[in-house]
Amino acid sequence: EALQSHTVALPDGTSLPRIGQGTWKMGEYPEKKKEEIKALQFGLDLGMSVIDTAEMYGDGQSEQIVGEAVKNRRDEAFLISKVYPHNANLSNIHKACEKSLQRLKTDYLDMYLLHWRGLSDGSLQETVEGLEKLRKEGKILRWGVSNFDTSDMKELMGIENGSNCSINQVLYHLGSRGIDFDLLPWHREQQLPMMAYSPLGQGGSLISQLMNNLDIKEIAEKHQAKPLQIALAWTIRTKEILAIPKGTSQNHVMENAEAATIELSEDDLQKLDKVFPKPDRKMPLDII
Ligand code: NDP
Questions:
Q1: 198 CA to centre of ligand 1 in angstroms
Q2: How far is the CA of 6 from the centre of ligand 1 (A)?
Q3: Is 191 exposed, middle or buried (0-12, 13-18, 19+ CB in 10 A)?
Q4: DSSP state of 20
Protein backbone atom coordinates (compact mmCIF):
# COMPACT_ATOMS: atom_id res chain seq x y z
CA GLU A 1 0.00 0.00 0.00
CA ALA A 2 2.84 2.37 0.81
CA LEU A 3 3.81 2.40 -2.86
CA GLN A 4 0.55 4.18 -3.66
CA SER A 5 0.52 7.05 -1.20
CA HIS A 6 -0.34 9.78 -3.74
CA THR A 7 -3.99 10.01 -4.61
CA VAL A 8 -6.40 11.70 -7.01
CA ALA A 9 -9.66 13.10 -5.64
CA LEU A 10 -12.84 12.40 -7.58
CA PRO A 11 -15.56 15.08 -7.53
CA ASP A 12 -17.48 13.06 -4.89
CA GLY A 13 -14.45 13.09 -2.61
CA THR A 14 -13.34 9.49 -3.18
CA SER A 15 -9.56 9.25 -3.37
CA LEU A 16 -7.90 6.89 -5.77
CA PRO A 17 -4.26 5.80 -6.02
CA ARG A 18 -2.54 7.56 -8.90
CA ILE A 19 -1.50 4.38 -10.69
CA GLY A 20 -4.05 1.77 -11.66
CA GLN A 21 -4.11 -1.13 -14.09
CA GLY A 22 -5.17 -1.42 -17.73
CA THR A 23 -6.45 -4.65 -19.27
CA TRP A 24 -6.73 -4.10 -23.01
CA LYS A 25 -5.79 -7.30 -24.90
CA MET A 26 -6.11 -9.41 -21.76
CA GLY A 27 -8.17 -12.56 -22.18
CA GLU A 28 -7.47 -12.84 -25.88
CA TYR A 29 -4.95 -15.69 -25.64
CA PRO A 30 -6.02 -18.68 -23.53
CA GLU A 31 -2.43 -19.60 -22.68
CA LYS A 32 -1.84 -16.18 -21.11
CA LYS A 33 -4.96 -16.01 -18.94
CA LYS A 34 -3.38 -17.38 -15.76
CA GLU A 35 -0.51 -14.94 -15.95
CA GLU A 36 -2.90 -12.04 -16.58
CA ILE A 37 -5.04 -12.89 -13.57
CA LYS A 38 -1.94 -13.20 -11.40
CA ALA A 39 -0.61 -9.87 -12.66
CA LEU A 40 -3.85 -8.09 -11.74
CA GLN A 41 -3.89 -9.71 -8.29
CA PHE A 42 -0.26 -8.77 -7.73
CA GLY A 43 -1.19 -5.21 -8.72
CA LEU A 44 -3.98 -5.25 -6.14
CA ASP A 45 -1.47 -6.47 -3.53
CA LEU A 46 0.63 -3.41 -4.37
CA GLY A 47 -2.33 -1.07 -3.94
CA MET A 48 -3.16 -0.55 -7.62
CA SER A 49 -6.84 -0.91 -6.99
CA VAL A 50 -8.18 0.87 -10.06
CA ILE A 51 -8.75 -1.70 -12.81
CA ASP A 52 -9.86 -0.50 -16.23
CA THR A 53 -11.66 -2.73 -18.71
CA ALA A 54 -14.37 -2.44 -21.39
CA GLU A 55 -17.08 -4.50 -23.03
CA MET A 56 -15.04 -4.07 -26.23
CA TYR A 57 -11.81 -5.66 -24.94
CA GLY A 58 -11.56 -9.18 -26.31
CA ASP A 59 -15.31 -9.02 -26.83
CA GLY A 60 -15.90 -9.35 -23.07
CA GLN A 61 -12.95 -11.63 -22.33
CA SER A 62 -10.98 -8.93 -20.59
CA GLU A 63 -13.92 -8.35 -18.23
CA GLN A 64 -13.94 -12.08 -17.49
CA ILE A 65 -10.24 -12.03 -16.58
CA VAL A 66 -10.87 -9.08 -14.27
CA GLY A 67 -13.81 -10.94 -12.73
CA GLU A 68 -11.53 -13.88 -11.97
CA ALA A 69 -8.85 -11.61 -10.54
CA VAL A 70 -11.18 -9.84 -8.10
CA LYS A 71 -13.14 -12.92 -7.04
CA ASN A 72 -13.16 -12.91 -3.21
CA ARG A 73 -11.57 -9.47 -3.11
CA ARG A 74 -14.13 -7.26 -4.88
CA ASP A 75 -13.94 -4.66 -2.10
CA GLU A 76 -10.25 -4.04 -2.73
CA ALA A 77 -10.86 -3.11 -6.34
CA PHE A 78 -12.23 0.01 -8.03
CA LEU A 79 -13.72 -1.45 -11.22
CA ILE A 80 -14.15 0.62 -14.35
CA SER A 81 -15.78 -0.63 -17.51
CA LYS A 82 -16.81 1.13 -20.70
CA VAL A 83 -19.82 1.06 -22.94
CA TYR A 84 -19.66 1.18 -26.74
CA PRO A 85 -21.22 4.35 -28.20
CA HIS A 86 -23.70 2.15 -30.11
CA ASN A 87 -24.89 0.73 -26.79
CA ALA A 88 -24.90 4.06 -24.98
CA ASN A 89 -28.57 4.80 -25.60
CA LEU A 90 -31.71 4.24 -23.56
CA SER A 91 -32.60 1.03 -25.45
CA ASN A 92 -29.25 -0.74 -24.98
CA ILE A 93 -27.29 0.68 -22.08
CA HIS A 94 -29.07 -1.24 -19.35
CA LYS A 95 -28.45 -4.59 -21.03
CA ALA A 96 -24.85 -3.72 -21.92
CA CYS A 97 -24.17 -2.82 -18.31
CA GLU A 98 -25.83 -6.00 -17.00
CA LYS A 99 -23.68 -8.10 -19.32
CA SER A 100 -20.52 -6.35 -18.13
CA LEU A 101 -21.56 -6.96 -14.51
CA GLN A 102 -22.15 -10.64 -15.24
CA ARG A 103 -18.77 -11.08 -16.88
CA LEU A 104 -17.14 -9.25 -13.98
CA LYS A 105 -19.14 -11.37 -11.51
CA THR A 106 -20.18 -8.32 -9.54
CA ASP A 107 -23.37 -6.38 -8.94
CA TYR A 108 -21.98 -2.87 -9.34
CA LEU A 109 -19.30 -0.93 -11.21
CA ASP A 110 -17.33 1.73 -9.39
CA MET A 111 -17.30 3.70 -12.63
CA TYR A 112 -18.79 3.33 -16.11
CA LEU A 113 -17.37 5.26 -19.05
CA LEU A 114 -18.70 6.15 -22.46
CA HIS A 115 -15.83 4.66 -24.51
CA TRP A 116 -15.87 7.40 -27.15
CA ARG A 117 -18.39 9.87 -28.48
CA GLY A 118 -21.24 8.72 -30.66
CA LEU A 119 -21.94 10.97 -33.59
CA SER A 120 -25.68 11.30 -33.88
CA ASP A 121 -27.46 14.45 -32.67
CA GLY A 122 -28.80 14.28 -29.16
CA SER A 123 -26.99 11.02 -28.43
CA LEU A 124 -24.84 12.54 -25.70
CA GLN A 125 -27.89 13.73 -23.81
CA GLU A 126 -29.46 10.29 -24.12
CA THR A 127 -26.24 8.65 -22.92
CA VAL A 128 -26.15 10.88 -19.84
CA GLU A 129 -29.78 10.02 -19.13
CA GLY A 130 -28.98 6.30 -19.40
CA LEU A 131 -25.92 6.61 -17.17
CA GLU A 132 -27.87 8.57 -14.57
CA LYS A 133 -30.55 5.89 -14.54
CA LEU A 134 -27.95 3.18 -13.93
CA ARG A 135 -26.47 5.31 -11.16
CA LYS A 136 -29.83 5.71 -9.45
CA GLU A 137 -30.37 1.96 -9.65
CA GLY A 138 -27.00 1.36 -7.99
CA LYS A 139 -25.62 -0.60 -10.97
CA ILE A 140 -22.86 1.97 -11.28
CA LEU A 141 -21.58 4.25 -8.52
CA ARG A 142 -20.41 6.99 -10.89
CA TRP A 143 -19.80 7.60 -14.57
CA GLY A 144 -17.40 9.38 -16.86
CA VAL A 145 -16.32 9.68 -20.48
CA SER A 146 -13.35 8.73 -22.61
CA ASN A 147 -11.67 10.28 -25.65
CA PHE A 148 -13.48 13.60 -25.10
CA ASP A 149 -11.68 16.70 -26.35
CA THR A 150 -12.17 20.17 -24.82
CA SER A 151 -15.14 21.08 -27.01
CA ASP A 152 -16.83 17.74 -26.17
CA MET A 153 -16.31 18.36 -22.44
CA LYS A 154 -17.78 21.86 -22.72
CA GLU A 155 -20.78 20.47 -24.56
CA LEU A 156 -21.21 17.79 -21.90
CA MET A 157 -21.22 20.41 -19.16
CA GLY A 158 -24.09 22.16 -20.93
CA ILE A 159 -26.30 19.05 -20.84
CA GLU A 160 -28.65 18.29 -17.98
CA ASN A 161 -26.70 16.30 -15.33
CA GLY A 162 -23.63 16.42 -17.61
CA SER A 163 -21.65 17.91 -14.74
CA ASN A 164 -22.10 14.65 -12.83
CA CYS A 165 -19.26 13.34 -15.01
CA SER A 166 -16.46 12.06 -12.73
CA ILE A 167 -13.52 11.72 -15.12
CA ASN A 168 -12.32 11.85 -18.72
CA GLN A 169 -10.00 9.05 -19.86
CA VAL A 170 -7.67 10.07 -22.69
CA LEU A 171 -4.41 9.08 -24.36
CA TYR A 172 -1.51 10.71 -22.56
CA HIS A 173 2.17 9.97 -22.40
CA LEU A 174 5.46 11.82 -22.88
CA GLY A 175 5.37 11.21 -26.62
CA SER A 176 1.78 12.43 -26.97
CA ARG A 177 1.10 15.45 -24.79
CA GLY A 178 -1.23 17.55 -26.92
CA ILE A 179 -3.72 17.80 -24.03
CA ASP A 180 -1.21 19.95 -22.13
CA PHE A 181 -2.31 22.85 -24.34
CA ASP A 182 -5.98 23.19 -23.40
CA LEU A 183 -7.75 20.01 -22.26
CA LEU A 184 -5.65 19.46 -19.14
CA PRO A 185 -5.77 23.16 -18.11
CA TRP A 186 -9.56 23.06 -18.60
CA HIS A 187 -9.83 19.99 -16.35
CA ARG A 188 -7.67 21.69 -13.73
CA GLU A 189 -9.90 24.74 -13.77
CA GLN A 190 -13.00 22.55 -13.35
CA GLN A 191 -11.27 20.39 -10.73
CA LEU A 192 -12.25 17.39 -12.78
CA PRO A 193 -9.66 14.58 -12.81
CA MET A 194 -8.28 12.85 -15.89
CA MET A 195 -7.18 9.31 -16.50
CA ALA A 196 -4.16 8.71 -18.76
CA TYR A 197 -4.48 5.69 -21.02
CA SER A 198 -1.53 4.06 -22.82
CA PRO A 199 0.73 5.98 -20.38
CA LEU A 200 3.70 3.86 -21.50
CA GLY A 201 3.02 4.62 -25.16
CA GLN A 202 1.99 0.95 -25.40
CA GLY A 203 5.58 -0.03 -24.69
CA GLY A 204 6.49 0.85 -28.28
CA SER A 205 8.69 3.52 -29.80
CA LEU A 206 8.55 5.65 -26.66
CA ILE A 207 10.96 3.21 -25.04
CA SER A 208 13.64 3.68 -27.69
CA GLN A 209 13.14 7.44 -27.67
CA LEU A 210 13.73 7.40 -23.91
CA MET A 211 16.66 5.02 -24.03
CA ASN A 212 18.49 6.99 -26.69
CA ASN A 213 18.51 10.20 -24.71
CA LEU A 214 21.39 10.91 -22.37
CA ASP A 215 19.50 13.46 -20.25
CA ILE A 216 16.71 10.97 -19.63
CA LYS A 217 19.18 8.21 -18.80
CA GLU A 218 20.73 10.58 -16.26
CA ILE A 219 17.34 11.42 -14.69
CA ALA A 220 16.54 7.71 -14.48
CA GLU A 221 19.88 6.89 -12.85
CA LYS A 222 19.44 9.68 -10.32
CA HIS A 223 16.08 8.18 -9.26
CA GLN A 224 17.43 4.63 -9.51
CA ALA A 225 14.63 3.95 -11.93
CA LYS A 226 14.15 2.82 -15.50
CA PRO A 227 13.46 5.43 -18.22
CA LEU A 228 9.94 4.06 -18.70
CA GLN A 229 9.24 4.52 -14.98
CA ILE A 230 10.30 8.15 -15.37
CA ALA A 231 7.80 8.46 -18.26
CA LEU A 232 5.06 6.98 -16.07
CA ALA A 233 5.94 9.23 -13.12
CA TRP A 234 5.75 12.16 -15.55
CA THR A 235 2.13 11.39 -16.52
CA ILE A 236 1.05 11.60 -12.88
CA ARG A 237 3.20 14.61 -11.97
CA THR A 238 0.11 16.70 -11.22
CA LYS A 239 -2.56 15.80 -8.74
CA GLU A 240 -5.49 15.62 -11.16
CA ILE A 241 -4.14 12.69 -13.18
CA LEU A 242 -4.13 8.97 -12.62
CA ALA A 243 -2.60 6.54 -15.09
CA ILE A 244 -3.57 2.99 -16.00
CA PRO A 245 -0.56 1.13 -17.45
CA LYS A 246 -1.17 -2.44 -18.51
CA GLY A 247 1.35 -4.97 -17.27
CA THR A 248 1.25 -8.71 -17.69
CA SER A 249 4.58 -9.72 -16.19
CA GLN A 250 4.95 -9.33 -12.43
CA ASN A 251 8.15 -7.44 -13.06
CA HIS A 252 6.35 -4.85 -15.16
CA VAL A 253 3.55 -4.56 -12.60
CA MET A 254 6.11 -3.98 -9.84
CA GLU A 255 7.96 -1.35 -11.87
CA ASN A 256 4.71 0.44 -12.64
CA ALA A 257 3.65 0.47 -8.99
CA GLU A 258 7.05 1.82 -7.95
CA ALA A 259 6.78 4.70 -10.42
CA ALA A 260 4.24 6.29 -8.05
CA THR A 261 7.04 6.93 -5.55
CA ILE A 262 9.24 8.89 -7.98
CA GLU A 263 9.18 12.64 -7.31
CA LEU A 264 10.40 14.49 -10.38
CA SER A 265 12.15 17.80 -9.65
CA GLU A 266 11.58 21.07 -11.55
CA ASP A 267 14.94 20.46 -13.18
CA ASP A 268 13.93 16.94 -14.28
CA LEU A 269 10.69 18.29 -15.71
CA GLN A 270 12.50 21.01 -17.67
CA LYS A 271 14.87 18.46 -19.14
CA LEU A 272 11.95 16.24 -20.14
CA ASP A 273 10.24 19.26 -21.75
CA LYS A 274 13.34 19.77 -23.92
CA VAL A 275 13.15 16.23 -25.30
CA PHE A 276 9.35 16.10 -25.48
CA PRO A 277 8.26 19.72 -26.00
CA LYS A 278 5.00 21.10 -24.62
CA PRO A 279 2.50 21.87 -27.39
CA ASP A 280 2.40 25.55 -28.32
CA ARG A 281 -0.96 25.37 -30.07
CA LYS A 282 -4.18 23.37 -30.03
CA MET A 283 -3.67 19.79 -31.15
CA PRO A 284 -6.57 17.49 -31.98
CA LEU A 285 -6.95 14.86 -29.27
CA ASP A 286 -4.84 11.79 -29.98
CA ILE A 287 -6.87 8.58 -30.00
CA ILE A 288 -5.99 4.91 -30.33
P1 NDP B 1 0.40 0.84 -22.06
O2 NDP B 1 0.95 2.18 -22.38
O3 NDP B 1 -0.11 0.57 -20.71
O4 NDP B 1 1.51 -0.25 -22.47
C5 NDP B 1 1.29 -1.62 -22.31
C6 NDP B 1 2.50 -2.35 -22.89
O7 NDP B 1 3.67 -1.97 -22.16
C8 NDP B 1 2.39 -3.85 -22.79
O9 NDP B 1 3.00 -4.39 -23.94
C10 NDP B 1 3.19 -4.19 -21.54
O11 NDP B 1 3.79 -5.47 -21.61
C12 NDP B 1 4.27 -3.13 -21.59
N13 NDP B 1 4.74 -2.78 -20.23
C14 NDP B 1 4.00 -2.63 -19.11
N15 NDP B 1 4.76 -2.27 -18.06
C16 NDP B 1 6.03 -2.20 -18.53
C17 NDP B 1 7.27 -1.89 -17.94
N18 NDP B 1 7.35 -1.57 -16.64
N19 NDP B 1 8.39 -1.93 -18.72
C20 NDP B 1 8.31 -2.24 -20.04
N21 NDP B 1 7.16 -2.53 -20.66
C22 NDP B 1 6.03 -2.51 -19.92
O23 NDP B 1 -0.69 0.54 -23.21
P24 NDP B 1 -2.25 0.21 -23.23
O25 NDP B 1 -2.71 0.61 -24.58
O26 NDP B 1 -2.52 -1.14 -22.77
O27 NDP B 1 -2.90 1.28 -22.23
C28 NDP B 1 -3.19 1.02 -20.89
C29 NDP B 1 -4.67 0.80 -20.66
O30 NDP B 1 -5.43 1.95 -21.00
C31 NDP B 1 -5.29 -0.29 -21.55
O32 NDP B 1 -4.88 -1.57 -21.15
C33 NDP B 1 -6.75 0.02 -21.40
O34 NDP B 1 -7.22 -0.44 -20.16
C35 NDP B 1 -6.73 1.56 -21.44
N36 NDP B 1 -6.96 2.09 -22.81
C37 NDP B 1 -8.10 2.83 -23.03
C38 NDP B 1 -8.39 3.32 -24.29
C39 NDP B 1 -9.64 4.11 -24.50
O40 NDP B 1 -10.02 4.34 -25.65
N41 NDP B 1 -10.32 4.55 -23.48
C42 NDP B 1 -7.50 3.07 -25.45
C43 NDP B 1 -6.29 2.35 -25.10
C44 NDP B 1 -6.05 1.90 -23.82
P45 NDP B 1 3.26 -6.74 -20.77
O46 NDP B 1 1.77 -6.80 -20.97
O47 NDP B 1 4.01 -7.87 -21.39
O48 NDP B 1 3.63 -6.54 -19.33
A1: 5
A2: 21
A3: exposed
A4: -
Residue 3's alpha-carbon distances to 47, 75, 163, 246, 251, in angstroms, are: 7, 19, 32, 17, 15
- Residue 115's nearest CA partner among 137, 140, 147, 142 is 147
Query: What CATH number does the domain containing 116 carry?
Result: 3.20.20.100
CA distance 35 to 43: 12
Give the model confidence (pLDDT) of 205-258 as tens digits.
Answer: 888 888 888 899 999 999 999 999 999 999 999 999 999 999 999 999 999 999
β-strand pairing of 143-146 with 7-9: unpaired
**DSSP per position, 180-218:** GTTHHHHHHHHT--EEEESTTGGGSHHHHHHHT-HHHHH
Residue 212 domain-assigned (yes or no):
no
Strands 111-114 and 194-197: unpaired
Q: Is the ipTM of this complex over 0.90?
A: yes
Look at residue 223 and tell me if it is in a domain.
Answer: no
d(CA 39, CA 174): 25
> Which protein residue has the closest C-alpha to ligand 1 atom 9?
203
Residue 248's identity, in one-letter code, is T
CB of 245 closer than 6 A to ligand 1? yes
